Amino acid sequence: MLLDKTILELAAGLRSGEFTSVDLVNECYDNIEKYNPQVNAFITIIPKEVALKNAQEVKLNSPLSGLPFVLKDCFVTEGIKTTAASKVLENFIPPYSATIYKKLLDAGAILVGKMNMDAWGHGGSTENTDFGVTKNPWDTSRVPGGSGGGPAVAVSARMAVFAIGEDTGGSIRNPAAWTNTTGLKVTYGRVSRYGAIAYASSFDTVGPVAKTSEDCAVILETIAGLDNLDATSSPKPVPAYSSLLDKKMSEIVIGVPKEFYQDGLDPEIKAAVLQVSTELKKSGAVIKEISMPLFDLCLPVYYLIAPSETSSNLARYDGIRYGHGRDCFTDETTRRILIGTYALSAGYYDAYYKKAQQVRTLFIEEYQKALSQCDILLQPITPNNPPKFGELLSDPLQNLLADIYTVSQNPVGVPSLALPCGFTKSGLPIGAQIVGKMFTEELLLSVGHQFQKTTNYHLQKPKL
Length: 464
Ligand code: GLN
Known about the structure:
Elements (H helix, E strand, L loop, with lengths): L6 H10 L4 H19 L2 E4 L2 H10 L10 E5 L26 H8 L3 E6 L33 H8 L5 E6 L5 H7 L2 E4 L19 E6 L2 H11 L29 E5 L9 H16 L3 E5 L7 H16 L17 H14 L5 H21 L5 E5 L15 H6 L7 H4 L3 E8 L5 E8 L4 H14 L10
Parallel strand pairs: 2-3, 2-4, 7-8, 7-9
Antiparallel strand pairs: 1-3, 4-6, 5-6, 5-10, 9-11, 10-11
């Protein structure tokens, strides 16, 4: 299947004339027709004629030219319905496009769909959507993770070459872990958020989901960089990530923070994640146990600040300016708006929101300290394997605990790469994340690339 190939292999094949962009688009739509009815990953499928026309007209001016991709449905696309998976925006047709979408169109990539998610990014299972749950292609009785379940499933089930997701507290990494895909949560500010429907603005990041670390490097090269329309986007130059993938592992110290491997972590996941360090050690990396004692505070900090910001961001959906009224918010979203409004209200602000921001500063220091003792941190992504439908929803506390390993990085801003690192005895995928200092994506991507050169977990795909 053409869609098993990496981005650089596809780019080479298109240039040598081995196959055409039309062939790729046709293969995508064949897979969408076969698999999407089983997994419900799409909210909007772009009409095949439109994608084919774009494929026929494409000029090969970048490695992404002619490659079919999908967007999480939280990115506005001019003239194409954008819902954030909420009934509130059921019929919303944006009048402008997100910067990442424009950059990808300029690069000649071909949009084939807008993908399902937990509404507004609120969730970790793609069950909190008004467009029907997305199913995990590795076991359709289980959730694919979230909030970006749709984008990850599209890549995992070969319905697109790559996807763009959004990560506020794990929404790229968590579904990557549970669908056997590779996903990058970038440094805050590395990629423009202009046109990304805001969840928690000081945590939100935009990044790639793909089959390999190398693919993520190629995509990041295209989407990263300063954007005058996003004042928080960084002016730092964008490295040529894909030509910097061959760093010597003998120069690298991998920190293993012991607090991330204690009670509550499934033993099979723990073994698979630690195996990543054993593998990288063979290439010369040095492993060092370290301590991050504030770890326990990450969930309360995240679940005070994120709802506070979302209660403010979602205030604009008043039923007058955009879409339907506030009665269309789901219970999960309403719960977050209530918590956030409470934490920000006079009399409680100091005790909750301000305190959480103070602890956030301690977290920034904790990560700085940890990353001064090593180059990267190796951490699990999820404490458990993908649950069956309903298991998380019936237990809101469990739902929050599922995010424990992915919510400490966003308040700090550091980047993290999610990598497939094994399978459970029952055949479910397991992921690990490597976290680095601010703006060290090239290091994370090269460690990921090295790991994928010597392992084949990332090559496995679901049997639908
Ligand atoms: N699961 C987390 C939450 O519900 C993360 C979501 C995200 O990154 N958008 O807040």
